[in-house]
């Protein structure tokens, strides 16, 4: 006896360009090399964390705990931080990609130090002006 799967709603499921149905809670990632690599595998961030933990354990390497890795993955995917050499090796291994493919060999997208200092100076000037208004 074969069980039939009946849809809860009428009509076909929405379809991706690849022809596969779209999951209701589709995966998302920043448009960065690391984010695209994760999506190409259909992995969630937690799956990346678990793969890192398993590979590091297999190799006998010490890495951060699961909770910290969740934060690291987000920062690395959003290009706000760069993974260190240990994590670059692990990420290249789990994604079967080169450092260049994961964006590790290109310059960081963060603004230059001069631009960051100028932005901070602007914030300080604005806050100083507001303090003057409040004090008056």
Annotate the secondary structure layout.
Blueprint: H1 33-41, H2 45-59, H3 66-77, H4 85-95, H5 113-135
Overall mean pLDDT: 81
Number of helices: 5
Specify the overall morphology.
Answer: elongated
| Unreliable runs | 1-10
Helix content: 40-55%
Task: Tell me which oligomeric state these chains represent.
Answer: single chain
Structural class: mainly alpha
Tell me how many strands there are: 0
The percentage of residues in β strands lies in under 5%
Largest sheet: none
Secondary-structure element sequence? HHHHH
Radius of gyration: 22 Å
Distance between the termini: 83 Å
Give keywords.
136 residues; mainly alpha
Give an account of the 3D structure.
- There is one protein chain.
- The protein has 136 residues and is mainly α.
- 51% of the residues lie in helices and 0% in strands.
- The protein contains 5 helices and no strands.
- The longest helix is centred in the C-terminal third of the chain and has 23 residues, at 113-135.
- The protein is elongated.
């Amino acid at each position: 006896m074969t069980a039939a799967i009946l849809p809860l709603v009428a009509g076909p499921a929405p379809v991706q360009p690849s022809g596969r149905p779209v999951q209701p809670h589709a995966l998302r990632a920043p448009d960065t090399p690391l984010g695209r690599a994760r999506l190409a595998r259909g992995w969630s961030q937690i799956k990346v964390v678990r793969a890192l933990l398993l590979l590091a354990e297999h190799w006998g390497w010490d890495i951060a705990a699961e909770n910290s890795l969740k934060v690291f993955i987000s920062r690395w995917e959003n290009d706000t931080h760069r993974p260190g050499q240990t994590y670059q090796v692990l990420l290249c291994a789990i994604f079967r990609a080169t450092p260049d493919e994961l964006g590790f060999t290109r310059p960081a997208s963060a603004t230059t130090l001069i631009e960051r200092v100028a932005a901070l100076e602007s914030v300080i000037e604005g806050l100083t002006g507001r303090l003057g208004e409040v004090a008056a």
